[in-house]
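Why does residue order matter? Because the sequence determines the fold. Keep that principle in mind as you read this record.
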Amino acid sequence: MSKKVIGRCLNIGNCGIANSMAVVEVDESAEFVCTECGKPLVVANQASKSGGNKSSQKWLAGLGLVGAAAAGVFGLSTVLKPKAPIAADATGSNSSPSGANVILRLAGSNTIGAKLAPALVEAYFKSKGCTDITQEKIEVELINVTCRLGGTDYIASISSKGSSTAFTGLKDGTADVGMASRRAKPADVASLAGMGNILSPANEHVVALDGIAVIVSPSNQVPSLSVDQVRGLFDGKITFFNQVGGISKSVRLYRRDDKSGTFDSFKTQVMAGIPIAASAKAYEDSHELSSAVAGDVSGIGFVGHTHIGDARPVPIGAPGQQALLPNRFTIQTEDYPLSRRLYLYSISEAGNPEVAKFISFVTSKNGQSVVEKEKFVPLEIVTQRSDLPAGSSSAYQAVIAGAERLSVNFRFNTGSNQLDNRALADLDRVTEFLIRTSTNPSKLVLIGFADNVGDPASNVVLSKERANAVASALKTRGIIPGRITGFGAENPVASNVSPEGRERNRRVEVWVTR
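Structure:
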């Protein structure tokens, strides 16, 4: 008789098993996912430990989750069964050692694939009980991570040739997991439509955050730039830095190569369809680009914020708003204008059981610690006392007086009042934060915002509706926020001129009163 592992589904609001808070028994050898919705389970059969104050215990008890919370298994805790056997994949590889099994094939973004993905795979293999874990660079854009378990070698291959190759690899079957530093484009969605909806919560996974830093030489003290000014610099209309408050030097442009997800994100977030000047020098490697800019007083370029190196990042802001540097908090909230999400994409029906287990590990507490170690921004929620946005109203200031802001903004699918995939996962992260910090839900303040299209009074109503949508989703988890309000188009974090900017402004902030 096979051993059973007991789990609990957290896909509340979308799954009957999760809504009923029932436990699920799964054979140890089977994939550890919900039998109804297919979402990863959290372990539910661990012993309870003491923890949390009485007020926190009271609302947790209403959910029947005191034991799970105290044991640290609710929310983003590890969902992998410890040392479960790795299932061999039939796929072979010309570069594989004799007798080795290729069990995971990752393809796509160099931003993810160069260092982060190999580190995550190593940690994943270690969590399974593997030994002799090694990395081997097969070629410039291909790394194999090998481990040994039970006398057999297993391999995960990581091909990093740009985000676009994530979707071609999933389509032609040469990749199990697609790595992308941009969201799937409509063309990607259409090309994979026959294999399911790539944007569904089962297939699209936000696993880390990053920010695109606009960098100059340390000798160039240009104080800040708007997105419009960055666009003007890179399309060649602004030719001297003193036109934007910098030194009296001509502008020399550096950019990432065409296959780079960083390049794709920059084109979307900054260039708005306008081509980058042909004089810009392209680099395949972010570190080389950063070093070149740092040594060129006339240089300006863009890289992921983890690749700033010796260059100087320039604060970026929307017109009339406080310019921000890319750091953990501004990127987690996505208030930094050039913040971006890093994605893993999968085909849920593809049949490789290691895919769901690997992605579950990446989004677990252990996986996110690897994200942070590799200098990307993890998804775990923290709090910070934040500066008041420029021009914020007295009413807004009164609501947040003495409060700390959570490092999350709830956002919505385009043209919809439905929470996007990151927001759906953030519902559990907020729950986990309350448990971890013994914070009573009555301390939560949800503040909705809208873009500036339409009547101001109507926008206030829309912003409150967004805050109420988040509150309703939290209430299914037994969390009743203390205050729910909205401030319309106040405090934009992006320009309302573009569709992308208006989408970023349609958000819900989360604060905690003390």
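The longest helix spans residues 456-475.
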